Each structure stands twice: as structure tokens, then as C-alpha cells.
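This part of the workshop introduces the protein records we will be handling. Getting from the letters to the C-alpha cells is the skill we practise here. The record below serves as our worked example for the rest of this section.

…
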Amino acid sequence: MHIDQLPGIGHAGSTQFFLMAGPCAIEGEEIALRIAEKIKIITDKLNIPYIFKGSFRKANRSKLDSFTGIGDEKALKILEKVGREFDVPTVTDIHESADAQMAAAYVDVLQIPAFLCRQTDLLIAAAQTGKAVNIKKGQFLSGQSMKFAVDKVLGSSNSLVMLTDRGNTFGYQDLIVDFRNIPEMKQFGVPVIMDCTHSLQQPNQSSGVTGGKPALIETIAKAAIATGADGLFIETHPDPTNAKSDGANMLHLDLLETLLVKLTRIREAIL
């Protein structure tokens, strides 16, 4: 697929990378609209095609009492409102086959979480909605092995597929990014995205709360653009410390514009 095939995508024909960005989880309408508005202003200024990201439900949590969401329908309606008010495509995670049709009624892109990228029934269900499918590369897989996940979507009569790298497991409580994965996955003829925030997670901490290294987001993003990534995935929040999910590895919203300006320059330099 080409990113311009997404309904509502702005800056068609731009030579810049595209951006998937927003909060980790939908926490409420006001904050979702606030984040989307600011990112839309920045990306319009920089000619960056933009897709708003927010999880309607967080199924993969460390602890039983971790935040999982505000309610499926409520969160999905907020995603729909963001897309309508700012005229941008929206993306959300799905975790079970039954989620596919439900979420597809509200968003433009269905995202397959990294831990679930080998789940055949889930991939087929997402593909059969006709929506674009963004598959996150499992932390336990190489870039080359993602060909089979792509083939499952293509084999279900859906050519709208993207791949996102988010690092590989390294030791027990850390991840490492192997930038060889970007050119390897680009060989499949689909857009390749770098998840600049989840790749800096420090999972399985003894506290039961995932850690992170947000100070390195700029480093990962720069390297991703330099190695040919088509898009970037960045979770951002105006108050990461008090975010309800993954605050430890999110970028503060106030830092996004400065970062994107630097990244657009790198993109221009390598074209």
C-alpha cells in the first residue's frame, strides 16, 4: 500500500515521512482532542501526513489493577470524533478477532500488537474488515520473519498493510533496536514504521510498572529516518508522569515540534 490510500490523510504526495502519534490510551474526550489539535497544527506546518493514535482498550497490562480503558464504545466514539473534527485518519489496537469489526466501524487503521503478530485468526479478521492493517513486529522476531504476517493479510484480499518495528527483547528487562529490520521489511513492498517510544520500554520491572528511556526518543527517531523508515510512531502526552498508561516512555507533547523539525531536515537530506 501507499500511505496516500488512507482516507482523510493530509499532505498527499509529500516527500516527508508520515506520523502516527497520540496518547497510549484514550483517557477522555477533552485530552484526546487537545493532543490531536496540537499535533495536527504541527504536522500541517511541516507538511507531514498524520494519523492519530489512541488505544480504545489496553489488554496487555503488567498488573491486574493497571488501567485498561474508559469503556470500549466510549473510547471508540472519541476516536471517531477526533477523526471527524480534525479530518485525520485514526488508528487503534485490537486484541481479539471480535474486536476487528467493532473497531473498524470507528477507525481507519487496525493495529495488531507486537505480542499478537503471529495470531492468524486476528490478522485475517482485521484484513477482512477492508481497513488498513498495521502489524507491529514481535519483540521475539526478526524483520525478515514478518513476511509471513504480511502474507496473511494479503492472502485475505487486503493489500492495505503496514509494518512497525518496536525493538527486540534484550536480556530480561530491556529492548534493543536492530536497524537492519527497516530495510529488511521494506523489501516486502509495504510502508515500514519505527515505534520510537515502545522500543525504549523497559518491561517486566519488579514494581509491575513498565519503565522507559524517553530521553533516547530523538536518537531512535533520527536513526530510523536515516535508515529509510517511511513513518514514525510516537506516543505523546501533555503530562506523561500522570498518563494512565505507558507514561514512562512517552514524549512530552511540548517537545514534539522541535523533534519533528530536526527529523524533517534529515529526511530532506537523504532524499
The chain has eight helices and 13 strands.
